[in-house]
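TA notes. Do not distribute before section.
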Amino acid sequence: MTLRHVLALGLALALTSGFAWGADPAKPAKKDNNRATTSKSAEDSNISMAHRASKLIGLKVHNNEKEDLGKIEDLVIDMRDGHVRYAVLSFGGFLGLGDKLFAIPMNSLKFNHDDKHFVLNVNKERLENANGFNKDNWPDFADPTFLKSVDDYYRADAGASQSHEGLVVSAKDGALTMTDVNGSNKHTHNIAKDVNIQLNGKAATLNDLHQGDFVTVTVNDRDGKDFVAAVHAESKKIQR
């Protein structure tokens, strides 16, 4: 996957978003103040979550113990929706993994904005047993069997956790109401008292979150039921 795919996707999105198909040029569209406010909030939040691929490739990857695991070698993009699905990592000599490359689902990685590196929350044993590949012999990322094997492997280690990002609508009384990053799909999570909540990289409470803050919610599966395991938020005042 090369940056040409990124550029091509960006051009396509720019072209499709630059025209209002079916609009009557003689009748100016009615201004929707609520929608404008939502769009502005979404635009502000994207400042911190949108990065050039060339700036991400080469960044270091640490584990939760702050050990240097390796670095990002490449990114794999799903051309159906433009999302980055996998990061390709090299671990160097860590754990004797040699010069192999490893495909890691992006939802297994967290970006540290302060120190500009990724954090991979996977234990050492899991990494040692992971299937890597030679830099001159890449797997077929269009093969659904291969992708499922990668997803299942790292999902098992994370306890079937899934993360999604969005904007805070309200946070109070044990409930976090949020939208997705473009201001749609409003929904509410119940937040238990023992949930790990961080704001700008520091421990926080639910009441510390404010409308418009960018938030990542991690949901785990326990005995067939979903529950919120962590909430990581970034204040809209420091988004960049």
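Switch to the second chain here.
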Amino acid sequence: MVLDNPSLGAGPAARPNGWHAATASTDPSGLGPSGLDPSSDAAIMLRVAAGDESGFNYLAEKYHRPIIHFLFRMVRNQAIAEELAQEVFLRVYRSRESYRAEAKFTTWLYRIATNLAVNHARDTKHERAARNVYLDTPDEETGTTPDVADDEISAEQHLLREERMKAIRTHVMALPERQRMAVIMHKYQGMDYREIGEVLKQSESATKSLLFRAYQTLRGNLKEFV
């Protein structure tokens, strides 16, 4: 494993060793023995289960930064997010032999990350900072928020934006835990209802209802800023 590699996630992940060989051995349909595209994350994880260390390194490098960003949204502490991310990939590695490609690899991965974040929040309820969730935090790469353009603004607009951000923080923090998790996965990770439902272990219709209630609550509480 290369979890302690300081360059992890710093650039495009290199394809695991033997990938071309695995691709070349597929049938004319382009699918491997498992019926999966050999280049898919699920197929690579199945090879990890069979002992392919390079496949694990590839997946860890590919998802290291996205998982840290996902966890940071929930724990609001960079060091804790990085520590939890390490634990996520350790659990992926330890569970490699039990992995089944019944769902997307990312669904399985984010379920592990979500469970760790929830457990951490429950274990540190006395630490307010560990429970903060900020839907308005600027993206580290673009410097923009999902709802606020990165254009030059006046002092008055800046004050209004700060007031709006404060309101968002307050009301997102007040959402029930599962609603908060669902909103983060939907808004920031771009996950669809089915994927979120698989992470939260509930039906797609229940997920739609969960998100509907969350956004309805936020819209009602933030109507003066809409």
